[in-house]
Amino acid sequence: MEKKSLSHRHLLPDSAWAVLIVAFLPVSAFAATCESLARLRLETTTITSAQIVEAGTFTLPSDSPRSDPSFFTAFETLRAFCRVQGIIRPATDSHIGFEVWLPESAWNGKYVGAGNGGLGGSINYYRLGEVVNAGYVGSSTDTGHTVSDHLWLEDKVKVVDFDYRAVYETASKTKAIIAAFYGTTTARSYFNSCSTGGRQGLIEAHKFPADYDGILAGAPALTIGDAKVVEDLKAFMARGGKLILYHGSEDDPIGTVNYYRRVIGRMGQTQTSDFVRLYVVPGMGHCGGGSGPDPTELGQRITPRADAQHSVWMALEEWVENGSRPGAIIATNYATEDDPSSGVVRTRPVCPYPMEARWTGNGSVEEAAGYVCDGVPVSK
Fold first, then answer.
1. In the chain, where are the structural domains located?
2. Could you read off the pLDDT tens digit of each residue along the chain, which spans 380 residues?
């Protein structure tokens, strides 16, 4: 029989939940060494390994799915980090694999949960590398099964783990590990992913609104999973959460557009504009890239030197941390897809839906400076 592991604790603010975690940790766990995290006692969790990975020595497991060329793969450039691996068993048949990567030094005080693609089944090492490279703590889960397990869809417990429980449990355990390792709580928590990961972010906002302060959800796969993606985000809004949705124009964005419209229908346009933005990105395919001539990159991936004008990720951070509402974000089209070193072909502002970029007739049609956002602003 499935254990009842979820409770009202998920309604606590992020900071309050973290304080409760710290309050119940033994004194010796504060500012722990990486290796000592293997002895950390967490509910329904077994930490199988905790060790420092020296700078530039991480090797991608041979069975990892092949990545999109735009994903972070420069693992040889990573700083030293503490790698924690474990299994969470919130129900009898659960076997949720997870990893947490914690920078050994120069942590920026923030945590980013990484989502999954497709039907999950593996750790998202590409996102973990990207996150740690930029100074954040990162976590990822295999969603409760492996890619070689072809029978998990027949197991109701594993389906629940995939639908929502693996991401929720990983977030809560990660915050406890952060508190133990650094002796302090996170300043902010974020979730960043696309496709199935975009769906995971929306379910987190609905079911567990205290887990993350900001969620970047790309091309959410709204029809994958038994858990329904609903537009009731009142609790997430009330706790001050911010949500940015994006979807490529070449990836049939109507499902995401309709989801956004349903949120407005439920909460009203004024309230929605206080905490939700949608960007339909011209020329973008599924989560990135694209075959069209228009700009395709919105800065959805985390890089150390990005800025809020060119990066939807940094725009989310600015919104959460400084209250700066995102406006148009400049997207870029490179000579070689996803390769900034190949040179910029064109730039264009991507306006918050339903506004669209219009050329003013001044300046080059290939440069964002010649465009303005037209249409009905989402803030009215």
1. 1-186
2. 333 333 333 444 444 444 344 433 443 344 789 999 999 999 999 999 999 999 999 999 888 877 666 678 889 999 999 999 999 999 999 999 999 999 999 999 999 999 999 999 999 999 999 999 999 999 999 999 999 998 999 999 999 999 999 999 999 999 999 999 999 999 999 999 999 999 999 999 999 999 999 999 999 999 999 899 999 999 999 999 999 999 999 999 999 999 999 999 999 999 999 999 999 999 899 998 887 777 788 999 898 888 999 999 999 999 999 999 999 999 988 887 767 788 899 999 999 999 999 999 999 999 999 999 987 655 43
CB 123 within 8 A of CB 146: no
Question: CA 208, CA 195: separation in Å to the nearest integer?
Answer: 19
Give CA–CA dist 238/320, Å, rounded.
13
Q: What are the tokens at 250?
A: 């070449």
**Residue 38 per-residue DSSP state:** G
Rounded CA-CA distance 325/358 in Å is 21
- The closest of 271, 197, 265, 190 to 234, measured between CA atoms, is 271
CB-based contacts of 118, cutoff 8 Å, min separation 6: 195, 196
CA 293/CA 335 separation, integer angstroms: 10
Q: Distance between CA 144 and CA 33 in Å, rounded?
A: 28
Contact 161, 144 (CB under 8 A): yes
Side-chain-side CA neighbours of 95 within 13 Å: the count stands at 8
Which amino acid type is present at position 252? D
